[in-house]
Design a protein that fits this description.
By secondary structure, the chain is of the alpha+beta class. Among the domains are: 139-346, Methylamine Dehydrogenase, Chain H, CATH 2.130.10; 430-713, Methylamine Dehydrogenase, Chain H, CATH 2.130.10. The protein is built from eight helices and 54 strands. It has a four-stranded antiparallel β-sheet, with no helix packed on it. A hairpin with a 5-residue loop joins strand 38 (530-536) and strand 39. The radius of gyration is 39 Å and the shape is flat.
Length: 745
Amino acid sequence: MRRPACRGRLESALWWAATGRRHLTLNALERSFLDAGTDLTRRRGRVRRLVTAGLALLLAIALSAVAVAVRQGVTLAANLDQATARSVSARAEALRSTDPRAAMLLSAAAWRISPVDEARTALYGSLAQSRLDVFPSEYGWLAGDGRTLYAADEDGVRVWDVATHERIRAFSDSASGDSDTASVSRDGLTLLLAGDDTVRLVDARSGKPLGERYENLMHAEFGDGTRVFWARTDRERTQLWRVGDGKPLLDRGSFDSVAVSPGDRYAALFHQEGAAEIWDLSSARRLPVPTLPKGAAIHAIKFSPDGRTLAIARHHDVLLWDVASGKPADEPLEAPGALWRNAFGDDLLAYTPDGRHLAVVDPGHITLWRVADRARIAEYPLDSGAAALVRFDADGRTLRYSTFEPPFSIVSLDVSAYLRPPTLGVSQQADATLSPDGRVLALVGRPATTVELWDVARGRLLGELKAAEEPADYAHVIFSPDSRTLAVSPRPGPARTTLWDVATLSRLPDLDDPGKVAQLARAFSPDGRTLVVSSVGEDGIEVSRSWDLRTRKTAGGLRLPHGGALALLPYGRVLSTDGKMTDQPSGEPSPWESPGTISFSAAAVSPDGRFVAVGVEEGRVAVSDARTGKRLSLVQHGKDAINAVAFSSDGTLLASGIPGEIRLWDPVTSRPIGPPLAGPTDLLASLAFDADGTLRAAGWHRDLISYPTAPERAVAAVCVRAGRALTEAEWREHIPDLPYRKVCH
């Protein structure tokens, strides 16, 4: 064996003793030397092991300290993110009125920074807010297209696109003269400039003068005219002029309100105290006017887009006048308890481009009416309490108004939720029921002949089911908890309740019902194996029976104190329409804090079966523990009866609906999450969340509204509403403590 190099004497000796010696007997000195060397080697090994262990311990301590520091850093960063998200959320709420677009983007940024409750509330607030934009403007004329602003003064004319905040063009002072007001024709081609008792007409695109000036006219406007405008002379007379004519079409006395119809056929002249004239300009013929008492206080007049109807705003109502027949077109638009109007001006009324809706400036708010049935469908508060004018954008989705006092601004409101056409099919009344998974909508017309099933996400008709053997007044339908089975009950009875497979649109075997007592399907059990169906006897008392859907035979009657079964809960309990809870089959009252009479079918059980939510007629929503019956929360949604309630698929959100409005709640804390969302304008018939967290709301006129409640989808929807991303400059202004992050992907 080769002897290792570079070893000391002791190591060499030990090596020799172990491998290289030839004599087996050692003397005492050799033995002592070798034993001492062995002991020294052992001691050195122990020292090395102790040093290694110590170093390992120190390393572990150092690594632990680093881990603690990292964890503390992460915690501090998370705490900073949470605090920043709350601050940004508060900033977003503060900007809702003055800079709504920035408010929307900041709410999305807050959620991106940290998903705290305040950020979620701000995010939903951005989905709900009607205010889209505020354009700081100068005094001017908002054209009939609802988005082009013309401002004129001694320096010239400036034309602005209100939607984009961009100046489109400008004319020099030589074109405008000493003008202080501007008005543009309905087709946007001719600009009227008035000032210094003179009216000038110029090309609205180039600013070039058109024809001669009109002298001794103190004020002039096109209104809705294309070639006809009206003017007030220096002698307080009212004249109507056609562009290019050398003399007025009409020269009448003093009137406060003047309107020219689209197409220039009709003109209406009204005095605030009630004197009125309506003219057919094509024949220079006076037409009948409504009989108005002296002192009627005419605040504004406006022709409908087709020129057939004249809207006349009075103190507390709006009269709709059929111009051709000289008779009221319908009953006046009058809201119960409406305040008397205190502002005057023809721009306080505006029709939508299709003429189906009318916006009216009222004290403190703008009221949106549906003309066909005179329904008041929405109100929009005015921060300053008044508006100088109101216009609809040509897109039919945006309503704009100008503030009354300086600093002037043009406020854009999103009214699309109330103005869009029917979502599913032709507009007609239909009872609507959404499946629990939010994927299918059942629509039943009146009279009930068929049940239409619609794919909600695609807006596609899946098919039609036969509602009844013979035509019925209406049909009541309910889905099973797994959304696979539909029960259809024609009304009034007696009539057989039928069951259908939703996927195949095929009829399932009927219930074994020789006595024809299965008249009105009330509720499925949570597992879908039992269906409660009721009938009404000759004494008018409703009797509920349960049916085993596996055998199709009745399992017996339910013992309910009053009313019919509304929901079957876990633990063998039944909630009835009178707000009582009973154990079955004993019929004994269950522990339950009743909130009162439940309205319609406004009851829902959370997906895990822990909670039950009900809406009562007084506009309240109650959430209770399904096992103990203890009430967890009671909130006030509004004054109207609750139409529907629904839990999200994860049980963290509760939605409640009344006509025109939906609210989101935390079901445990009863805290509202965000402001109200716009709902169907008629009776809100059904609510449901789909698996992706999209809230569906169905109304009686085939109206379907969807809102994303899953935060990432909500962020994407908010970014679309804002129409742009949050810039780095805006980030530095509002979120200086964090580096810039991309909010809208």
